[in-house]
Hints:
Layout: E1 3-14, E2 17-19, E3 25-29, H1 30-36, E4 43-48, E5 54-62, E6 69-72, E7 84-93, H2 95-98, E8 104-106
Parallel strand pairs: 1-8, 2-6, 3-5
Antiparallel strand pairs: 1-7, 3-6, 4-5, 4-7
Amino acid sequence: MYIQVIKSKIHRVTVTRANLDYIGSITVDRSLMEAAGLFEGEKVSVVNVTNGNRVETYVIPGEEGSGSIELNGAAAHLFAEGDIVIIMSYAIVTPEEAGTLRPKVIFPDTRTNKLIL
């Protein structure tokens, strides 16, 4: 048996752009991706704290250190610049592996989306 558990979480970042004219995905500052252990193309859930919307999409890297959090394509209808979001990815593991898995959770500054060191 396998179960799905949280692997990575970027907690409360601010959307910097909602771009309808893009084929899809979420653009995330590369430094945030690396800190949270997210991979390019990885499936993520994005929860909009501001309005309650939730989508699943995949991650593409944004410019390192830019603070970019951009919802692209159809998801741009559900997210707006300035919205606060949580970005989560999951791993499929055995129950035994779940007992030792420690998710990477980061808490960037919500005004700048920069890592707090």
